[in-house]
Design goal:
483 residues, mainly alpha, two-stranded parallel ribbon, two-stranded antiparallel ribbon, 2% strand, globular
């Protein structure tokens, strides 16, 4: 088992960074994810900045479009995506980034979120444009469809079409497997560990309850998941943000210094591990980008899967809605978590054994420090349960869509059952090993998706320019299937 963990850890460091080798110290995916987001931001003329306020209105106020083809409203599609991303990454991921990279890691999480909005926009656009109906009449889309269909449409039947098909199949395989890691084992394991540490609940009992409750929602499919997340996600987010807001108000005098520390640390490597100054800066940047991606999933391709289920009259309109998910996840929830950690100063503290506080423990101790009594620890523990449970629901849908691409509709129900059963397994498994496997599978998902996004960027750009060049763009309701 130790040998297996060492091998998986080495692969994870090669993919996400951490090896003591100059060429790959920064990791294979971190520069590719950040670079793709920056490239798409330029290609789309900064759509995440110029259309943000209208996108938020469309997503949170208007919420749905009448007479559009799809399975759920675009608000429900957004909450499914938020359910999958507003999870342990917003609590443990932020704590991990700041513990290892210092306060400055939060700045690079912000940067990752801002450029990641363009990535998410492109994923959603392509997800809707190339979606199809499965055998049960439900919409199915995402990288496993838009990579193959998009490259075939753009380059014709040839080597590029063959490449697209291979990349699409690889994404579907990695996505179906990754759902058991980031979307299942990590989440159920973190919930079981948190409740065991906080209140002494047996891990197997927590896993059993999670499995049964999740099955009630997951086995009903996307419409059941969409209805549940539409009601559940706003409640859990507001609950968590209110607690963080109280802490920041109680410590408002320390807030300006905390913000200054974040910006200083981003470029100096303050409080980061590592030897000389340059190594510290690289570590801050790597932690911020890697954990930022883990939190908002921009580049993994999952945004396109959720968007494909939406009732929308134009792929650009759903793309605007979907990119708000990254904004809400990283620029709102992650920001509040990070500010609480830095403002309370707990990221520089150690435990009784002299070890630095890490992951969800750091976040919990920061909230406990910021709120009177033990309310902070209770709030974070409940937030872990809410956030992780919602992530289980979103990733169950992502995994089943990948299985539909590989084997057809016949594989969907068996996959849902196995996914639910694995929740119990994840609750009692080694959490460190599950995290490492999840990181690797996320990377394997991202690679084919990023290649597809880069090759299809011109397709997104062309329609984007045409759509927004018309004065009546807010009223355009041409269905993508009819174009």
């Amino acid at each position: 088992m130790e040998t297996l963990e060492d091998i998986i850890g080495y692969i994870g460091e090669f993919v996400w960074g951490g090896l003591d080798i100059p060429v790959v110290e920064f990791g294979l995916l971190v520069p590719l994810l950040l670079g793709t987001g920056l490239f798409l931001t330029i290609m789309l003329r900064g759509v995440q900045f110029t259309k943000l306020f209208y996108s938020l209105w469309l997503a949170l106020i208007k919420r749905k479009e009448e007479g559009a083809l799809g399975d759920v409203s675009h608000y429900q599609a957004l909450t499914v995506a938020l359910a999958a991303t507003v999870g342990v990454g917003n609590i443990a991921g932020v704590g991990s980034a700041i513990a290892v990279g210092g306060a400055g890691a939060l700045f690079w999480m912000w940067v990752t979120g801002l450029v990641g909005m363009a990535t998410k926009y492109s994923e959603a656009f392509l997800g809707v444009k190339y979606r199809r109906q499965d055998a049960a009449g439900e919409q199915s889309g995402g990288p496993m469809f838009y990579i193959s269909e998009g490259l075939r449409e753009k380059y014709g039947d040839g080597k590029m079409a063959a490449l697209g098909k291979v990349l699409a199949i690889l994404f579907a395989i990695f996505g179906a497997l990754a759902a058991f890691g980031i979307g299942n084992g990590v989440q159920s394991g973190q919930v079981a560990s948190t409740l065991d540490n906080e209140w002494g609940f047996p891990t197997w009992a927590t896993g059993l309850v999670l499995m049964l409750v999740a099955a009630l929602v997951i086995l009903g499919g996307i419409k059941s998941i969409g209805r549940f997340t539409a009601a559940f996600v706003p409640f859990m987010a507001i609950f968590y943000l209110l607690g963080a807001t109280v802490i920041l108000l109680l410590n408002i005098a320390d807030l300006p210094q905390a913000i200054a520390t974040i910006f200083e640390g981003a470029f100096t490597g303050e409080a980061a591990a590592g030897g000389f100054l340059g190594a510290g800066i690289l570590l801050v940047l790597r932690q911020g980008v890697a954990r930022g991606i883990f939190s908002n999933e921009s580049g993994l391709g999952t945004g396109g899967i959720a968007a494909a289920a939406a009732k929308t009259t134009h792929e650009v309109r759903q793309a605007m809605v979907s990119m708000t998910q990254t904004f809400l996840d990283t620029l709102v929830v992650v920001t509040f978590t990070g500010l609480v950690i830095v403002t309370t100063g707990m990221y520089t503290e150690v435990d009784d054994e002299g070890e630095q506080l890490q992951d969800a423990v750091l976040t919990a101790e920061s909230f406990r420090e910021g709120l009177p009594g033990d309310w902070g620890g209770t709030l974070v523990s409940l937030a872990v349960v809410f956030f992780a449970f919602s992530t289980l629901l979103g990733w169950a849908y992502y995994g089943e869509r990948c299985m539909d691409r590989l084997f057809g509709r016949v594989a969907v129900t068996p996959y849902r059952v196995v996914f639910c059963l694995f929740i119990l397994v994840g609750s009692v498994a080694s959490l460190d090993l599950v995290w490492d496997i999840a990181d690797i599978l996320n990377g394997l998902m991202a690679l084919p998706n990023l290649v597809g996004l880069i090759l299809l960027a011109v397709t997104v750009r062309r329609t984007n320019i045409e759509f927004f060049s018309r004065p009546e763009w807010k009223l355009i309701t041409v269905k993508p299937e009819a174009e």
